[in-house]
Specification:
Distance between the termini: 55 Å
Strand content: under 5%
Low-confidence stretches: none
Radius of gyration: 19 Å
Structural class: mainly alpha
Number of strands: 0
Mean pLDDT: 95
Order of helices and strands: HHHHHHHHHH
Helix content: over 70%
Largest sheet: none
Number of helices: 10
Length: about 190
């Protein structure tokens, strides 16, 4: 069976479950429409299916709908709507949503800029091992944004992200070391 045929079969099965109200299948079908996997790419259909799952409280779909609002995929770009959907997923413990909510607070996108809130959401995601959040939390400590400046904590969070291959964190560690900031083991 070809890859296209496999994708079409998967889309057909997802549609059956999605039409039956299964939130996971609704989200999966929405992603298939967004990517054109087994179906003709259609962002309007992607939004419709992802929204059905999100409205049932499915965290991955809530995060996905937030991303669609940020990027304006299949709907009008709206940072405030994105924040609302990120928050719903973040409150359920979705680390990607927590990270993105932190970014929204740090940048003032769809919500008033607030570094303390950014740090709070970055920390939640970082503690779950989210490398992007670990890098951003390191940055907040390095620059004293939303927290007291603390080179040791900056290095600690950057190191966690760097160990996962995050190149921004690796670069930040090199810069801090070159500047003589913090304690680095030999």
């Amino acid at each position: 069976m070809s890859v296209a045929t496999e994708d079409q079969k998967a889309a057909s099965l997802a549609r059956l479950a999605a039409e039956g109200g299964d939130a996971s299948a609704q989200y999966r079908l929405g992603v298939m429409y967004a990517n054109g996997d087994g179906v003709v790419q259609d962002y309007a259909q992607a939004v419709a299916w992802v929204r059905k799952a999100a409205e049932q409280g499915y965290a991955a779909a809530q995060y996905g709908l937030g991303v669609m609002y940020v990027k304006g995929l299949g709907l009008r770009q709206d940072d405030a709507q994105a924040v609302g959907w990120f928050r719903k997923a973040a409150e359920q413990g979705d680390s990607a949503a927590q990270h993105n909510l932190g970014v929204c607070y740090e940048k003032g996108q769809g919500v008033a800029q607030n570094d303390v809130e950014a740090v709070r959401w970055y920390r939640k995601a970082a503690e779950q091992g989210n490398a992007f959040a670990q890098d951003n939390l390191g940055y907040m400590y390095e620059h004293g944004r939303g927290v007291a400046r603390d080179d040791a904590l900056a290095i600690s969070w950057y190191s966690k992200a760097a160990e996962q291959g995050d190149e921004l964190a690796q670069n930040s560690l090199r810069k801090m070391k070159a500047a003589g900031r913090g304690h680095f083991s030999p």
